[in-house]
Every structure is written in structure tokens, then in C-alpha cells.
Design goal:
Peroxisomal Thiolase, Chain A, domain 1, 2 domains, five-stranded mixed sheet, 33% helix, binds oxa(dethia)-CoA
Length: 330
Amino acid sequence: MIAPAHDVHILGTGSYTPSHVLTNQDLEAMVDTSDEWIVTRTGIRERRIADPDTPSSFLASEAAKRALDDAGVSAKELDQIIVGTVTGDRIFPSTGCSVQDILGASNAYAFDVSAACAGWMYGLQIGRDAVRAGTAKTVLVIGVESLSKIVNWTDRNTCVLFGDAAGAVVLRSRGEPGGILATRVHSDGSLVHLLEMPAGGSLMPPSHLTVERQLHVIHMSGNDVFKHAVRAMQAVALEVLEAAGKKAEDLALLVPHQANLRIIEATAHRLGVPMEKVFVNLDKYGNTSSASIPLALDEARRSGRIQKGDLVAMVTFGGGFTWAGAVVQF
Ligand code: UT7
């Protein structure tokens, strides 16, 4: 059965964060930084760090179990599992396949999406389209990152920003209007070098030299990413609101990518959305890339910030350069 255009709903949400907390004070002892600098420049106070031997598939499947439980859906009912990540368990096979195995989702097919911080949002559109097209009835979309594993812990420019987490949603048609009203995704490949992990792939296979030169960690042009981020978040928010036939003032909540409080405030200001209507949790988790929005969405729902019928917009940006937005009626 092909679902009507506006009938693919988020049935449930879930998230998981590792228990180990790394505070700004802890970082002061590791690199030349200060709690004051990190808080004023980013808004981040602490982040969660997974154990060295805990893979992304574990974080992802814990979030998935909570989303399935919230949706009242069993793993066997899943047709499609999409994992947005740039820190999967291995280069191949996909982390999606490992999650499928852990969940026992034997009737699904699984794959990963590589779109950096926009990975989960890309997955949301792909999953929504599959339900609409009738090629899947029930879809699990996960965003997961173990960024602590690819951060240079001696580089103060990047190591204070990132954290580990997972978030997940279950999508299905509910036979009533609402749900995911519109999505928009974009990329601009001319900006790949703004934010990348240079080595480890076919471009620069791993060698002693790539390890010595610290090429298996995040390299970022922070200022450039900042400027593109604000422009992209505003543009895609306006574009996706228009596609949904809505205005910024109709929003009950804006859930932006949690990278930097100054980027979030600038975006909200440009859209005319007051900060009371903007969900922020980056103070606790830092930037968790693809996990950032589903983690924030889950916290917003469970804390009562999203009620049935509420109109919610989500906007994100990341390496690639990628950016995306979605408008959802809960
Ligand atoms: O999901 C997408 C991922 N990326 C992002 O969202 C990043 C977007 N960019 C940003 O959030 C900001 O550009 C940063 C937080 C990364 C940096 O903030 P900024 O206000 O753009 O600072 P800056 O890079 O211009 O650096 C200002 C100064 C520099 O010192 P000098 O050259 O002025 O003497 C840096 O060396 O701050 C210094 N600095 C630090 N100082 C203390 C950079 N990192 C630190 C640090 N502690 N951790």
C-alpha cells in the first residue's frame, strides 16, 4: 500500500549516551584550554565518552531498543534499518548490519548513510520515502557517533567540541494526516576539505606515515564551517517550512543540530524564533554529529517539550558540506 504524502509518522524515539562524563575541567588538564573559553565560544560544559572497547553498534542498538519500546513495535516488524554515521564499527560491512543482528531484526535490510552531521536527517528522508513508496512499512532510522575515537586529544581546536551518543526513531504510516510534512537535503562537494578525516580510505590508505602525521583524526576549519553553518541552517529552515506550507511562527519547537550555541542562537534569531522555542542540550553532550538531532528530539519528547499535534522543525549541517531540514507534526 502506498502511504499518502503526509502520513509517515515518527511512532517512537529513543536515545543512549555512555555513562562516562568528560567535563571542561577535565579537558583543562589535557590541553591548553579553559572552561570559560569553551562555555563562551561553544556553550558546551561536558560530553559523554564511550569506553575504548564499546563500538558504535552497541550505542546504536541501545537507542534503537528504546525507540522500538516507545513505538510499541517489535524488531521483527522492521523492514528497513538506516544508520547515519561517520564512526561506524568498520569501514565495511555496515554498522546497520551489526545493529540488525544485535536487535534480531531478521526481516529488515540494513545499510549506513555517510553524510556527517546530516546523516540521520538524510536517513529520515530515505526512510520516509521508502514508506511512501511502499517498499518498506516500518523503518528504523538511527544516528550514532563515537567521535571520541577519531578526535585528536592533543588538538584544543577540536577535542573540546565532540562527544559520543546515539538516537533513533521508528517510522510508519498511521492512516491519519500529519507526521513528516516535508524534508529537504543538500550537499556541496566543493567544500569537502572544511571538515574531514583525511586518511583511512582509498584516497589515503592507512600507513605508518598517515598515523605519524595524525591524519586519522578530525581536521576542521572551524571559522569557515561556522559561517556556512549559519547560512545553511537558515536557508534550509525557510525552504522546508515553505514546502510544508508553514511559517516559523507556527513552530512549537525548533530542534537544531547541537554544534555550537552561537550557531543555534544566530539561526533562531535570523528565523525570528525565540530561544524559549529552541531545544538545546549541547551543554551536556557537545557535538554528537549524526546523533545530535535524534538525541535532542528524544529528550524533548520525554521531557514534555513536544506534545501531540506540535509542529517541530529540525535543521542540521555538517561535513561534505551537507545540510538538511525536516518539518514534523507530532
Ligand atoms: O557539526 C559540524 C562541526 N563543526 C562545527 O560546528 C564547528 C563550527 N565552528 C565553531 O563552532 C567555532 O568556529 C569554534 C568553536 C570551533 C571556534 O570558535 P571561534 O570563535 O571561531 O574561535 P577561533 O577558531 O577563531 O579561535 C580563536 C582563538 C584562537 O587563538 P588566537 O589565534 O586568536 O590566539 C584559537 O587558537 O581561540 C583559540 N582556541 C582556543 N583557546 C582555548 C581555539 N580552541 C581553543 C580552546 N581553548 N579549546
